[in-house]
């Protein structure tokens, strides 16, 4: 962060806590805008990342960029989702605590893109070993698969997630990703049967029709044109420029293989997707009694073939209602409207089950084979908040979910920040903020909240409609400050009453959210707050009014005020001491005193200014990132020194070990060689004595003394080797024969040794293996000797 401070006049401040006028919302937004216009989409508030959707590829996620953010301090690099991910990852590994990254923002703000980059960054932390590559590929391939089945084009976003996703990535003690687990929340299944104007069904339907090979389509009795299918053409938007269904089908196909879906499983998936399309084409007409009759048998036949059920059973299931009452099964015929409802309910339910099964199956693929303690890093990409204009049940749930997330944000950052200062006995200026608990209570409070009222309404005898439900809410909630009534028509087929068992749907969702909140609360959170700069999906266009609205409901100004009034960093004394004890001689290498005193010693050793920190009951509080940054730098420097020391010790140890081994080997070799030499010498001497005797005998016999001044003789005598050999001969060989004549004796000795030299050379060259020659360095000697052959007398 410090590295980019000098540019602040041009590109604003990288962390909003550095803004002079930090209470002013327009200054805050202006900072975001300034940066956005310079293609800088990320800005911090402390450790919360604000991301403004650029709607264009700015080259922010290249491999180089990914490397740039690896193993670096959060404050050393410009703001980025990679930086916050690296920070969470490093804390997770260093402190072996579970973390989570919460990504929020309205639909189209860039949550899914951010979550993909977070996952990519984490998956790439592994070493490139085969097993790790397998895990990484599976983690990454889960995305295209879930997106195909769970995302759709909406008017706000061409690739909108229509389900909530929480993914835990599991790491082993070395920090390698070893597996993962996905939790999915409330799929917007109503989209299967109905889409708003300009919107599409889930991507997978279009992908199958556009990308499947002809044989597969034929097997599924499908035609390529999506306009042939009732469920795909209601939004009148079968093709979207920014979506390539054909290529995406291939990606899904590839993902299924990587995730080891069997051929049977893959076929079953396509059968069900095809069956839903056929089911949508089942139309009804009224017979004379006003009861439902199927207009055309073909879709029924095709659908029943694909789902493996008898066509008559399917037809009956769509046109009749079966009720079990006190052990009796009663079947009653439906009118065409009711049959359409039954058809749609079946399609939605089948699709939802396929989706849930996919997640279960994915989890099976992502299961870690490693046992032992794993640390978790969760990524939450929940559906984006949408302005409440559709009045749909799912829309209500999505917004309720976002309110709950805001609760977690308030709980974990704002309130806990204030409570922590209080608990730790730290003086600070209390900041007021809007607590949305009142909104959450309005929705979820037992017996009084909207969900309880909905459950009651659906359970009571008689027909429940939107209007009856609205009346109920009006009578119970009219005085609530945050309740606004709305208008509805008395329509018995409306959204709420369509939930045949709404008590389960709404309460189930409430319960699953409560479970999610528990998971999130048990982890160290990091935040990515996504902002949508405009409603037109336009790049380089920053609509200040739209941004201001989001800044407000995301509570960013409150977040900034709390952050600015407080401390940027806090850590339990034990953790801080554990990390930084090496920087201070008083705490290194051994320290047995209380952690707080140890931290105090470190702080004093590093020369913190008294205003820059506070010592709480159990934690150290550091006001500005700069101070922490300096501490981290000192630690990194010290780490280098320690690493050098360890390296030197290790190198010395390795060298010593090597030296000892060599010495032992040399001793063995020397012993061996001495024995070989001694043996050879014995043989040589024996041979030489024999030859000398024979030669001297012949020499004496011929009485042909060699002239000692002869040049060749001189040359031979000069040969050091011969001299040495001559010296090694037993004098007695010659002395006994020639006691008074040293010259002929020397001459005889020289001639004798020349002969011996030739013999030896030949013998060596023949006998010695090249490597042996090299080993004992005899090769050179032997070659020299061999070359000298022509000089023999
Ligand atoms: N960082 C980014 N860089 C480039 N384009 C982006 C980025 N973030 C988002 N976009 C563009 O904006 C579109 C919408 O983003 P995304 O799907 O992530 O929104 P979302 O918040 O997940 O929406 P929803 O809640 O509807 O799922 C993407 O399809 C992409 O085109």
From TrEMBL:
GO terms for biological process: actin filament organization; actin filament-based movement; animal organ development; endocytosis; system development; tissue development. InterPro entries: IQ_motif_EF-hand-BS (IPR000048), Kinesin_motor_dom_sf (IPR036961), Myosin_head_motor_dom-like (IPR001609), MYSc_Myo1 (IPR036072), P-loop_NTPase (IPR027417). The keyword ATP-binding applies. Pfam families: Myosin_head (PF00063). Residues 12-636 form the Myosin motor domain. Gene3D superfamilies: 1.10.10.820, 1.20.5.4820, 1.20.58.530, Kinesin motor domain, Myosin VI head, motor domain, U50 subdomain. Residues 513-535 are annotated as: Actin-binding. ATP binds at residues 105-112. Keywords: Actin-binding, ATP-binding, Motor protein, Myosin, Nucleotide-binding. GO terms for molecular function: actin filament binding; ATP binding; microfilament motor activity. SUPFAM superfamilies: P-loop containing nucleoside triphosphate hydrolases. It comes from the Eukaryota. GO terms for cellular component: cytoplasm; microvillus; myosin complex; plasma membrane. This is Myosin motor domain-containing protein. It comes from Cherax quadricarinatus.
């Amino acid at each position: 962060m410090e590295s980019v401070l000098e540019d602040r006049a041009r590109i604003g401040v990288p962390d909003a806590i550095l803004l002079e006028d930090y209470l002013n919302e327009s200054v805050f937004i202006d900072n975001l805008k300034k940066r956005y216009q310079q293609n800088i989409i990320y800005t911090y508030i402390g450790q919360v990342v604000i991301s403004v959707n650029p709607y264009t590829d700015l080259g922010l996620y290249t491999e180089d960029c990914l490397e740039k953010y690896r193993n670096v301090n959060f404050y050393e690099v410009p703001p980025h989702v990679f930086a916050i991910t690296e920070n969470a990852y490093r804390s997770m590994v260093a402190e072996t605590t579970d973390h989570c990254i919460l990504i929020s923002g309205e639909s189209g703000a860039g949550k899914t893109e951010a979550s993909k980059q977070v996952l990519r960054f984490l998956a790439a932390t592994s070493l490139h070993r085969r097993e790790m590559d397998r895990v990484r590929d599976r983690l990454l391939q889960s995305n295209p698969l879930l997106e195909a089945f769970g995302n759709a084009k909406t008017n706000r976003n061409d690739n909108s997630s229509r389900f909530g996703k929480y993914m835990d990535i599991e790491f082993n003690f070395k920090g390698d990703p070893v597996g993962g687990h996905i939790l999915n929340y409330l799929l917007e299944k109503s989209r299967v049967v109905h889409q708003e104007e300009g919107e599409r069904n889930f991507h997978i339907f279009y992908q199958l029709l556009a990308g499947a090979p002809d044989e597969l389509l034929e097997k599924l009795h499908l035609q390529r044109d999506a306009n042939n299918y009732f469920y795909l053409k209601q939004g009148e938007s079968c093709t979207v420029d920014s979506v390539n269904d054909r290529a995406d089908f291939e990606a899904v196909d590839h993902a299924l293989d990587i995730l080891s879906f069997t051929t049977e499983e893959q076929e079953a998936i396509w059968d069900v997707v095809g069956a839903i399309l056929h089911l949508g084409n089942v139309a009804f007409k009224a017979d004379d009694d006003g009861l439902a009759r199927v207009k055309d048998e073909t879709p029924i036949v095709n659908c029943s073939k694909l789902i493996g059920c008898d066509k008559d059973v399917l037809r009956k299931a769509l046109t009749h209602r079966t009720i079990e009452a006190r052990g009796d099964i009663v079947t009653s015929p439906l009118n065409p409207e009711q049959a359409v409802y039954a058809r749609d309910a079946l399609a939605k339910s089948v699709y939802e089950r396929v989706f849930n099964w996919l997640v279960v199956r994915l989890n099976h693929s992502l299961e870690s084979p490693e046992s032992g303690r794993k640390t978790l890093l969760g990524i939450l990409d929940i559906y984006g908040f949408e302005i409440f204009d559709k009045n749909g049940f799912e829309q209500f749930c999505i917004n309720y979910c976002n309110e709950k997330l805001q609760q977690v944000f308030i709980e974990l950052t704002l309130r806990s920040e204030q409570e922590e200062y209080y608990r730790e006995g730290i003086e600070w200026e209390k900041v007021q903020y809007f607590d949305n608990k009142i909104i959450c209570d309005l929705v979820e409070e037992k017996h009084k909240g909207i969900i309880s009222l909905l459950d009651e309404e659906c359970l009571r005898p008689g027909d429940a409609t939107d209007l009856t439900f609205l009346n109920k809410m009006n009578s119970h909630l009219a005085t609530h400050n945050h309740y606004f009534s709305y208008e509805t028509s008395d329509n018995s087929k409306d959204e709420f009453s369509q939930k045949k068992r709404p008590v389960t749907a709404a309460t189930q969702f409430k319960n699953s959210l409560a479970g999610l909140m528990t998971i999130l609360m048990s982890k160290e959170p990091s935040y990515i707050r996504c902002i949508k700069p405009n409603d037109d999906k336009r790049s380089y266009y920053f609509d200040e009014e739209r941004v201001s609205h989001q800044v407000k409901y995301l509570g960013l100004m409150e977040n900034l005020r709390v952050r600015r009034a407080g401390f940027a960093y806090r850590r339990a004394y034990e953790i801080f001491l554990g990390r930084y004890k090496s920087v201070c001689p008083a705490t290194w290498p051994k320290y047995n005193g209380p952690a707080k005193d140890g931290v105090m010693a470190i702080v004093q050793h590093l020369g913190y200014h008294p205003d820059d920190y506070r010592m709480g009951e159990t934690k150290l509080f550091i006001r500005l990132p700069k101070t922490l940054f300096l501490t981290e730098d000192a630690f990194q420097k010290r780490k280098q020194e320690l690493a050098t020391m360890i390296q030197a010790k290790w190198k010395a140890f390795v060298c010593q070990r090597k030296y000892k081994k060599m010495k032992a080997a040399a001793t063995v070799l020397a012993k061996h060689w001495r024995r070989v030499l001694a043996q050879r010498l014995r043989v040589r001497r024996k041979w030489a004595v024999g030859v000398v005797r024979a030669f001297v005998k012949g020499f004496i016999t011929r009485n042909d003394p060699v002239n000692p001044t002869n040049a060749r003789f001189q040359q031979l005598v000069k040969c050091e080797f011969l001299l040495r050999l001559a010296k090694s001969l037993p004098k007695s060989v010659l002395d006994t024969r020639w006691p008074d004549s040293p010259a002929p004796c020397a001459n005889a000795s020289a001639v004798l040794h020349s002969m011996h030299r030739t013999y030896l050379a030949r013998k060596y060259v023949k006998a010695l293996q090249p490597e042996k020659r090299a080993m004992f360095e005899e090769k050179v000697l032997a070659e020299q000797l061999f070359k000298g052959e022509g000089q023999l007398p």
